Automatic annotation (TrEMBL):
<dbReference type="InterPro" id="IPR025705">
    <property type="entry name" value="Beta_hexosaminidase_sua/sub"/>
</dbReference>
<dbReference type="InterPro" id="IPR029018">
    <property type="entry name" value="Hex-like_dom2"/>
</dbReference>
<feature type="domain" description="Beta-hexosaminidase bacterial type N-terminal">
    <location>
        <begin position="3"/>
        <end position="139"/>
    </location>
</feature>
<feature type="domain" description="Glycoside hydrolase family 20 catalytic">
    <location>
        <begin position="142"/>
        <end position="457"/>
    </location>
</feature>
<keyword id="KW-0326">Glycosidase</keyword>
<keyword id="KW-0378">Hydrolase</keyword>
<dbReference type="InterPro" id="IPR015883">
    <property type="entry name" value="Glyco_hydro_20_cat"/>
</dbReference>
<dbReference type="Pfam" id="PF02838">
    <property type="entry name" value="Glyco_hydro_20b"/>
</dbReference>
<dbReference type="InterPro" id="IPR017853">
    <property type="entry name" value="GH"/>
</dbReference>
<protein>
    <recommendedName>
        <fullName>beta-N-acetylhexosaminidase</fullName>
        <ecNumber>3.2.1.52</ecNumber>
    </recommendedName>
</protein>
<dbReference type="InterPro" id="IPR015882">
    <property type="entry name" value="HEX_bac_N"/>
</dbReference>
<comment type="similarity">
    <text>Belongs to the glycosyl hydrolase 20 family.</text>
</comment>
<dbReference type="Pfam" id="PF00728">
    <property type="entry name" value="Glyco_hydro_20"/>
</dbReference>
Length: 493
């Protein structure tokens, strides 16, 4: 029996035989997101009742798991960390143990992949529903395993963002970074500054009407992500990428003149009035609304491509702006350019995004040597908006084309020697992407490989990975995902 688990677990033993789910198979579990997620998934595809037996027995009691049930419990080994789990499947049933609810949730994704691909079906289909006998001990290599969606260049609504989350969940991602503002649009309602969305939210790349999230919409996304153990990291990109804000409030512009809304795809032409104190009043107001909407510990302040801002001004701007985030108890995250800021607070996360072929900027190497954690998103490995090859209709290619193998074959810990690598993140910029199917096309089949880079122990083996990845296309078919890229690289082994 060959299994096709992605990301590959830390340790896996497969035995002869399989446990078969039956309509009356009982689910014993503490009340938690993982248990709800699992029973909903199983009931949807199998049509089985799978009675909830949580009240009938103590789910934390590991001793009598001999009755052919599904058992989830929080008595897993603590040494596997917050997201680790143990999964044992045998004649006696399924036993998933973790130390935290988050660990159970990650383990549920593994259990999901042990079932036939049809388990992804949104409507009941015939079984049998067999789960091979296994013993798995698993925990992630990195604590930050992110996906990013740019809702600024093209707006994607709550349903589309939920669907994007659904694509990341089976692969054990745990961070959802939302790029909420850019030149082309401001996408989150700020009550103290309603024109940001009433005006600045009405544009996007090209002709479309734009759009924005109300604060209730944003809360809905945060809750949906939280129920899947993803932390939302909202980004307000500063001090460049700010045309939509300045078009809404001209006092934010250096010359005080209202710019037009922007519908192109250039970067690096806008900057806030970095010398005016009213700019910082504005930022304080925005971050003071954003922080309480964000239960996670991070606020992303952008900092990339501020080509209009001279180094001295950039330093002064960030030095003044970062405390507006940290005073709410948040940790600042910024793109790698912010490494040059003289007084970065301890713990500030820097996001590496330039292609790996470029030398590491001395300021970034220096920040890394001071122990600031890095999130690795090198454009020629992790940028999901790069074309697969020259025939890809969607996407950009400024960092080159990015095939499936190239996005899989890299080690985040070799890029900046000695750095503390928090993990990786895969950004999906949307200059050329307008529909949820477009997003799927760029995500799959690259996203699972990036998940494996983030979760599984190094080293990795492409030729052993390809058959596993190919098996996952059956899951996408069963789930009704139609627009994933049919990559010739999947025939390579
Ligand atoms: C660079 S990555 C950008 C974005 C673009 C992206 C397109 C980064 C920090 N800045 O503004 O959308 O390239 O690939």
């Amino acid at each position: 029996m060959t299994l096709s688990l992605i990301p590959a677990p830390r340790a896996l033993v497969v035995r002869e035989g399989a446990f078969e789910l039956a309509p009356e198979t009982a689910v014993h579990a503490p009340r938690c997101h993982a248990a709800r997620f699992l029973t909903e998934l199983l009931r949807r595809a199998t049509g089985y009742a799978l009675p909830d037996a949580s009240d009938a027995s103590d789910a934390s009691d590991a001793s009598d798991a001999s009755d052919g049930a599904l058992r989830l419990s929080l008595d897993g080994p603590a040494d596997l960390g917050r997201e680790g789990y143990r999964l044992d499947v045998g004649a006696e049933g399924v036993r998933l143990r973790a130390h935290t609810e988050e660990g159970l949730f990650r383990g549920v994704q593994t259990l999901r992949q042990l079932l036939p691909p049809e388990i992804e079906s949104p409507t009941p289909v015939p079984g049998p529903w067999r789960i091979p006998y296994v013993s798995i001990t698993d925990a992630p290599r990195f604590r930050w395993r992110g996906v990013m969606l740019d809702v600024a260049r093209h707006f994607f609504d709550v349903e589309a963002v939920k669907r994007f989350i659904d694509r990341a969940v089976p692969y054990k991602f745990n961070v959802l970074h939302l790029h909420l503002t850019d030149d082309q649009g401001w996408r989150l309602r700020i009550e103290s500054h309603p024109r940001l969305t009433e005006h600045g939210g009405t544009s996007q790349v090209g002709e479309g009407p734009g759009g924005h999230f109300t604060q209730a919409d944003f809360a809905e996304i945060v809750a949906y992500a939280a129920a899947r153990h993803l932390t939302v990291v909202p980004e307000i990109d500063l001090p460049g990428h700010t045309q939509a804000a300045m078009a809404s409030y001209p006092h934010l512009a250096p010359d005080g003149v209202t710019p037009e809304l922007y519908r192109g795809i250039d970067v690096g032409f806008s900057q806030l009035a970095v010398h005016k104190s009213t700019t910082y009043d504005f930022l304080d107001a925005v971050l003071s609304e954003l922080a309480p909407l964000t239960p996670g510990p991070y606020l992303h302040l952008g900092g990339d491509e501020a080509h209009q801002t001279v180094a001295e001004d950039y330093d002064a701007f960030m030095t003044r702006t970062i405390p507006l985030a940290t005073r709410h108890g948040k940790t600042a995250v910024m793109w790698q350019e912010a490494a040059a800021v003289t007084a970065l607070p301890e713990g500030t996360h820097l996001q590496y995004w330039r292609p790996t072929r470029e030398p590491v900027p001395p300021a970034l190497a220096d920040a890394a040597s001071r122990g600031l954690p890095l999130i690795m998103s090198p454009a020629d490995r992790a940028y999901l908006d790069m074309k697969y090859d020259d025939t890809t209709a969607l996407g950009l290619s400024w960092a080159g084309t990015l095939g499936v193998r190239q996005s899989y074959d890299w080690d985040p810990e070799t890029l900046v020697p000695g750095a503390r690598v928090a993990g990786i993140e895969s950004p999906l910029w949307t200059e050329t992407l307008t529909t949820p199917d477009d997003l799927d096309h760029m995500l799959y089949p690259r996203l699972p490989g990036l998940a494996e880079v983030a979760w599984s122990p190094a080293p990795k083996d492409w030729s052993a990975y390809v058959p596993r990845l190919r098996a996952h296309t059956l899951r996408w078919d069963a789930a009704g995902i139609t627009s994933y890229h049919r990559s010739p690289e999947l025939e390579e082994d």
